[in-house]
Amino acid sequence: MVEHTFSRATWLNSLHMSALTVALLQEEGIAACDLLAGSGISEQDLAELQKLVNPEQEQQVYANAVRLAPRPAVGLALGLRTRISAYGLLGYAMLSAPTFGEALRVGLSYPVLLGTYFRLALEQDGDIAWLTATGYSEDESLRAFNTEVCLGSLKVTFADLLGQPLPLHAVQVDYPSGGGMARPYARGFGCPVSFGANRSAIGFDAAWLTRRLPLADPVTHKEMLEQCRRQNVEFAARRAWLERVRGLLAARLADPPGLEELAKQMNCSSRSLRRHLAQQQTSYQQLLDELRFTRAKEMLQQGDIPIYRIAEALGFSETASLRHAFQRWSGQPPSHFRG
């Protein structure tokens, strides 16, 4: 069994899924600014698609989508729009694999490049192969949405790899059926769906694992695998480095180290620190703002902490400065995030 483990401590991702979410809901008449509220992501960020986002930012966009969507199973609609090209080099490595089974194993071998909120594993039970999605640890209220995105995108990935839809044996989800879920699930997956299972999984005839892929190419596959290996190592190193910077700042939000002091703690010059941050489409001030915003929302959710105490904890000299910061970060006052 090949397994992919999601690590919140080192995970950053592109704006691809946030942009797809906004585009989908805009078709329903929902404004982008409402979908991005509280995420620290701007419409300009979506236009440029350069910024990297952390799980909380992406999950805030998803939470807004669930709250604002006029219909159920919006996560499934989003997943069914996610093509294999969204995985970049990894997608091409999978497309050029010799067989369907090998393509899936390649995808599961590169956790940083795959980017998911689940542990994915390929299992075989008799004549049925199951791709399971377990280990979810994000907001419980978004479990269904994130599962829909995951399983829906897997269904599309299967079809992209094979050049034809893969007949599914069954789908299992580890949550109960909510209002109006059954019909879009049956239509979207095209197979029986079991709610309240002990895991979430998508099953199909195991014979498909040996099916040769239409775009199989050993030369391209070898080259793409090597590039994936290099990119995986590079991304993992960059993200671990960035998380160390974030950790140093997060430990001192009331009195954050300046750029020079932070650079010393990172054993580099301030110039190198700026350059490395820029390579990851961020900056000292952007990281500090994101960390302050996250901590402020956590404190506001507790409900009874006075705003002046929150301002002090985050290094603001007065509450007015914190209020202005909230407007800059989210376009909303602090009271919008009170628990």
From TrEMBL:
GO cellular component, one term: cytosol
The keyword Transcription is annotated on this UniProt entry: yes
Gene3D superfamilies attached to this UniProt entry: Homeodomain-like
Top-level lineage group: Bacteria
Domain HTH araC/xylS-type: 243-339
PANTHER family attached to this UniProt entry: HTH-TYPE TRANSCRIPTIONAL REGULATOR GADX, HTH-TYPE TRANSCRIPTIONAL REGULATOR VQSM
Protein name: AraC family transcriptional regulator
Organism lineage: Bacteria, Pseudomonadati, Pseudomonadota, Gammaproteobacteria, Pseudomonadales
